[in-house]
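SAMPLE LOG
Freezer: B-3
Tube label: C17
Construct: single chain, 438 aa
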Amino acid sequence: MKTYLRIGIPVVLVILAVVFILRRIESAAEGRGKKPPQGPTPVRTAVAERGDLPVILDALGTVTSLATVTVRSQAAGNITQIGFREGQDVKRGDLIAQIDSRPYQAALAQAEGQLARDEAALKNAEIDLERYEKLIAEDSVSRQQLDTQRAAVRQAQATLKTDEGQVSAARVNLSYTRITSPIDGRVGLRKVDVGNYVAAGDAASIVVITQLHPISVIFPIPESELAPVAKRFRGGATLAVTVFDRSGDIELARGTLTTIDNVVDTSTGTVKMRATFDNNDELLTPNQFVNVRVLVDTLANTVVMPTAGVQRGADGPFVYVIDGDTAKARQVKLGAAFEGRIAVLQGLDGGEQVAIEGTDRLRDGAKVVTSEAPKSEAPGTVPTASESTADPTREPHRGSTTEHAKADGSEPTGSPSLSAANAQAPPPPAGQGAKQVQ
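STRUCTURE (predicted):
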């Protein structure tokens, strides 16, 4: 046993010494292989310029008719005529259906005959009353006979009023046999055919008429976004609204905001709004799902820069301003954003070069080598209404939420997008949606 110990201990010590030496050699090699300090950091820049940046609100909405009528019968009988074709546009008062009117015509004639008979009875009672009034002056009849005749006249007058009411009711019932359209609109698929028996109170309808011109879109916005919209709307401003199809690729119609609901839905924290559209090309159909864009306001002559240049730090959002060959961090206050551009409310005066790429390697005071962004990415080139809507194949707006920059630089909270849109009319969607950037 002692022999093994005498041999094993030296061997272990030799192994440990070899491992130690090898590690020292590796450390020395790593030190010799380190790259020398790098030179200036390459960055891509863009110029923060002054321009107009419209503010938009994106939402999801449903097309809703301003008037929808389910036509049901108010009279009982067999249908003798259908006065429309399915899908036909009808005017107020156009014939929808005709019910067999013969029983109602007979009832009207009977009521009119009763009225004529009671009119004759009243006339006779009035003549007798006149006679009694003359005879009472000669003391030829008793006072009781005169009073009885006066009561007979009043009774005949009351009977006549009842008869007149029955005649009016018979005429109304007869009018119910001719069913007409109460609104201008388009009829749908008919539910009954000629020869079917219908009655008042039937659950089944004859047809549904829907108004298409004009038409509306109802959409909710979060209550946190209500203040700027309500302020402009209550101030008399006309807020332009544009709707797109479900995918957001195709512009369907342009209209105006007409109504803001008077309550907040406590279950969702949203307020409903209604926009109205002429719908002359009939691209909007009731219950259709659409993407909605509301032009809320326009930030005029504001500093605009690419959103890619905005950084976040402990003190809030900041940008790297390139001064010669040096990058300087500058705190900024941000506004609305749209299609990769963001308004800078404080911190930039316009004309400064800001870093938009390579910023992850920058520090305040770092040396840089700059290259300018392509002209198409210049921040001042905000599209006009005609430019932004001329090409419907532009990449659609996919986002429906945005983040709002806070003055204190704190982290944003998500909410439906209040972002920038076109100054004259909301342009079609583009990019990945308007985003408010902290």
